[in-house]
Each structure stands twice: as structure tokens, then as C-alpha cells.
Amino acid sequence: MSSLPRLHLWQDLVPREGPLNMALDEAMLLQAEGIWMRVYGWVQPSISIGFSQPVSVIPETQAGWPMVRRWTGGGAVVHDGDWTYTLAAPAGSDLSEQRAVETYREIHEAMIRALHEAGLGDCSLQSENTSDGMGVCFVEPAKFDVVWQGQKIAGAAQRRAKSGFLHQGTIQPVKLPASFGLLFARQLAMEVIVMDQQEMEARLMPAARNLARDKYATVEWTLHRSAPSPSPGPLTQLAVPGSTVPS
Fold first, then answer.
1. Please, what are the averages of pLDDT over each run of 10 residues along the chain (247 residues)?
2. Does 38 map to a domain?
3. Which range of residues forms the domain containing residue 82?
4. Which of 26, 130, 200, 230 has its CA at 20 to 30 Å from residue 32's CA atom?
5. Among this protein's residues, is 123 annotated catalytic?
6. Is residue 9 part of a domain?
7. Measuring CA to CA, which residue among 160, 163, 143 is closest to residue 152?
8. Residue 232 in domain
9. Are 5 and 191 in contact (CB under 8 A)?
10. Which of 76, 137, 166, 245 is catalytic?
11. pTM higher than 0.85, yes or no?
């Protein structure tokens, strides 16, 4: 992946609960006509776990926190003031066609350049794998994670599907300027188009609310990685201790 020709950036201004955040990312993938990036927050401290992880990986210190299962892999991530983003690209794009290790490295190389601009000048790529990807994400760095002063500060997980490429990542625990989304986007692409909040919500929210209700907020998905048949009814409270659904 050389520098992307164009990137559409949505800096989502509304913090959201886990199921709706995951649903918006998948809805963005399904509708992406080019390379899109969403930067977003969480309405409350939450846990996301990788597609293949058992719920038992959640640390005792976060027991009872709201939890959601990602469609991407990777380890358990604590979302508590972190900087979270997602890249989505349609099938046939460079991101979709390249090997995972290549896109992971090149996205994080662009991130390091942006972090340097933001004042974190000693960031580098983790050279060796110290994790099997199934534990707590920020305890053991994986190869090509971003490290700073000997500590992992950025990791991500990916998925390739018929619909395209999805990359979900986070930076923590460092403080970043409000402009970091644009700094990062400009390191990824030669042209950055900033998307309007209302336009993106109008475009993605109908599908995202259905995905949140029928997939990400369900017991079947959270515990067993299987989505039940779509329901015409409203969102309901997820019957897993500490888990919530969007209103």
C-alpha cells in the first residue's frame, strides 16, 4: 500500500455505545465507495473483544463493564478515553487485496509519522511478536504495533470479507490533539475529503441501527459469534452482565 490517492474522513462527533459503534463500522464497510475512515468515541468505559475470543478473557478489573464483540479479530481492548478509528475499503481496493501483515505495517507507519507531527517523536514499530492475539490487546505487543518509550500505544485488528476490508484500531493511553484524525488521514492519503456529520449519520444510521439490534447487541453474537434472524422490534437490553445496547 503506497500512499492512498483519496481518503474520506468522518470525525464522528457523537460518542456511542459499543453495539452501535461496531454496527456503524460495518455499515460503513458495506457502503464504502472508496477508502473511508471514521474516528469516534465511546459514551462510557467499555470493552471490545475479538471475533474469536471467549468472554472469559475480560480482565477482572473490567468485570461488569459494557462489552461488545468486534467483527475483526485481535485481543480484548479497554476503551476508556482512547482514540479509536476504523478504516473501510471496498473489495478490489489496494487495502482489500494486500496481505494483512503489509497493510498492518503500512497503516502503522503512517500513524507514526502523524504521531511525530503531534509531538510523540520516539514512536516505532514493534519488531517482534510477543502475543498470540487472544489476550488483552495492550498487555503484549504484536509485530508492527506502535510502541513509545517501551510501551505499546497503538494496535488494531482486521477483517477481509466479500464486501471488502475493515481495520479497527485504537491509540492509548497518550493524549492526542483534536486535529490528530486529520494529521493521520493526510499521512495515509494524498487527498483527504472531510465528511459532514449529518450526511454520514443519514447515510449510515438506518443500516447501523438494524445491525446493532440484530447482531452486535444480541446474546447470540456476544457469546457465540452467531447473529440471530433479523428482528423487526426495537433494541432490547442484552442479557449479559454489564452489557448495554444503544438507545
1. 87 98 97 95 96 88 91 93 97 89 96 96 85 58 91 95 95 95 97 98 98 96 78 41 37
2. yes
3. 4-224
4. 230
5. no
6. yes
7. 143
8. no
9. yes
10. 137
11. yes
